[in-house]
Design a protein that fits this description.
The chain is an alpha/beta fold. It has one domain: TIM Barrel (Alpha-Beta Barrel), CATH 3.20.20. It is built from eight helices and eleven strands. It has a nine-stranded mixed beta sheet. A two-stranded antiparallel ribbon has the order 9-10. Strand 4, helix 2 and strand 5 form a beta-alpha-beta unit.
Length: 226
């Protein structure tokens, strides 16, 4: 019986990507293999997390009002660090709703272990200009290859430092796998870090490389929901 730490679970409205506006059950896990400089999520186990086995977590979420739930969002942290736990938990949870995986798209082997249980993949492309992390393109490429056959899209958080080289590279990567690409302006609290003119400029640059590109900010921050 595998146990893992869960920071929190709650019912709210999805505020990012093409599934924005859907009612979801969010489960936030407590570890991450990256350290993005813009990350503001308190997901560490040391900040009030609780340890669960698969049945224990399922019993706990079953006490919530799950009426109208579209899907269960596995978030974090990085949920794919918990593959042994997920292999026990997801067969129980699929009866509640679709399984929606939010991931940094760097752990392709771990994804393969739970792929059959996942319905929707929200996969980040991490820009060095936004995250401070170098050389993730090949790992993203491997991950997107593993997503074949799944309902998947990719999301890019960007700010004023985004470069034309990053735009070209990431657009071609999304195009290679036919993934819808969602541009998400970096937030400073409830405000976007860049203005509308800059967002439009970045969007238009992407569209010169690939036509499946949308701009969707983090609308849950405007709505003041979790």
């Amino acid at each position: 019986m595998t146990k893992t730490f869960v920071k929190e679970f709650f019912v709210s409205i999805q505020g990012e990507g093409p599934y924005v506006g859907y009612k979801q059950l969010f489960i936030r896990f407590c570890r991450c293999n990256l350290n993005c400089k813009y990350c503001d999520t308190e997901f560490l186990a040391s900040t009030g997390a609780k340890e669960y086995c698969a049945q224990g977590l399922f019993d706990a979420i079953s006490e919530l009002d799950l009426t109208g739930i579209h899907s269960i969002s596995l978030t974090g942290g990085e949920p794919l660090l918990e593959t042994e736990f997920l292999k026990e938990f997801l067969p129980l949870a699929r009866g509640v709703g679709k399984i929606y995986l939010e991931t940094n798209a760097t752990l392709s082997k771990q994804f393969e272990e739970v792929k059959d249980f996942v319905d929707i993949v929200s996969a980040d492309i991490k820009l060095e200009s936004a995250t401070g992390i170098k050389d993730l393109a090949n790992r993203h490429d491997e991950f997107f290859a593993a997503c074949k056959g799944k309902d998947a899209y990719t999301k890019i958080v960007f700010d004023s430092a985004i470069s034309d080289e990053e735009i070209a590279m990431t657009a071609e990567l999304a195009k290679k796998y036919g993934l819808e690409l969602v541009l998400s302006p970096m937030m400073l609290g409830a405000k976007m870090s860049v203005g509308g003119d800059f967002i439009t400029e970045v969007h238009n640059k992407y569209l010169t490389h690939y036509d499946r590109v949308r701009v969707i900010p983090q609308v849950h921050k405007f709505m003041c929901v979790e």
